[in-house]
Amino acid sequence: MTKYFIRKMGESMSLDVFNARANQNKLGNLFLGFFEGLFIDGRVHIKEIEALIKWVEHYPECVDLPHFETLYNLLLKAAEDPEFLLQKHKEISEIMVKFKRSDYFIKNTCDVQRLHGLMAGIVCDQTLNQDEVFALNQWLKDNDHLEEDPIYTEVYSKLKPVRVNKAVDEKTINVVLSTINRYVNYDNYGIPKVAVSSSQENQNPDFYHGAFAIQGFTICLTGASTRYTKAEWKNAIEAKNGIFKDDMTKSVDYLVICNKGNPHWAHMSYGRKFEQALKWQQDGVGIKILTEDDFVKILES
């Protein structure tokens, strides 16, 4: 028993270390995108610097990210002297390449996280100009390996008039701004919205919040949870006469997005199971996507 306990403790500690590193990498990718968005139009405004400071307050752990202090100080200097940014653009770009940390995530996942940060950096000053729209369109074209991601697809589709007309009008700016506002708080320095939420003000339209039953239905889970282990989820679902399925297939009735174990995960990519569920929904497959909170209300009732 003692040996088993020590071994399990070791496994738990290793997992904690892994999760800490993974979360730091995700936060790093988010900030990488945010910095890119800040000077995507070649300028830095005082409102953008105020947003950067607000982000540091919101994510205090970011100060431990590699190269963060250097980038932070460069952008503060750029706010005082806009020309400084252009003079140091190459240097900043080189630092940002180093800033990206992707030890645990495939390129697509890193870049989805960067995209979320990029959108925040673009609108954090509560405006969107033509140069930023052109630059965002080009970024998406340069990263078309993300075309299966629902956020990428949504934003890219709204930029079609830019690609067709080679111009940016006020209507397109408003449509793009409204789309980005689904994912970040446009009026709160671009801080990402809590996208997995059951509260009325934060409900994500991709998630189902209506009535549902567990008995006789097939449930698949994705993400990290502090409520239950996978085995405990399986037992709890089967105790309600539900069918637990580890793999995502078209036979799944409900995909549950668990976000209790990772505070950053909720703001970024939901993962491949979520993307697959959205794609199948568009093809007419009746899969519903639930938040962990909503699912647990029925599971534990």
Order of helices and strands: HHHHHHHHHHEHEEHEH
- Biggest sheet strand order reads 2-1-3-4
Shape designation: globular
Model regions low in confidence, pLDDT < 50 over at least 5 residues: 1-18, 102-106, 262-267
Average of the residue pLDDT scores = 79
Short description:
The protein has helices spanning 2-38, 46-58, 68-80, 82-87, 89-99, 107-123, 130-142, 150-158, 160-165, 170-180, 230-239, 272-282, 292-299, and strands at residues 218-223, 243-244, 254-258, 288-291. It is mainly α and 301 residues long. Strand 1, helix 11 and strand 2 form a beta-alpha-beta unit.
Write the layout of secondary structure elements.
Layout: H1 2-38, H2 46-58, H3 68-80, H4 82-87, H5 89-99, H6 107-123, H7 130-142, H8 150-158, H9 160-165, H10 170-180, E1 218-223, H11 230-239, E2 243-244, E3 254-258, H12 272-282, E4 288-291, H13 292-299
Parallel strand pairs: 1-2, 1-3, 3-4
Structure in words:
Strand 3 (254-258), helix 12 (272-282) and strand 4 form a beta-alpha-beta unit. A 4-stranded parallel beta sheet has the order 2-1-3-4, with helices on both faces. The chain has helices at residues 2-38, 46-58, 68-80, 82-87, 89-99, 107-123, 130-142, 150-158, 160-165, 170-180, 230-239, 272-282, 292-299, and strands at 218-223, 243-244, 254-258, 288-291. Helix 1 crosses helix 6 (107-123) and helix 2 runs antiparallel to helix 3. It has 301 residues and is mostly helical. The longest helix has 37 residues, at 2-38. Helices cover 55% and strands 6% of the residues.
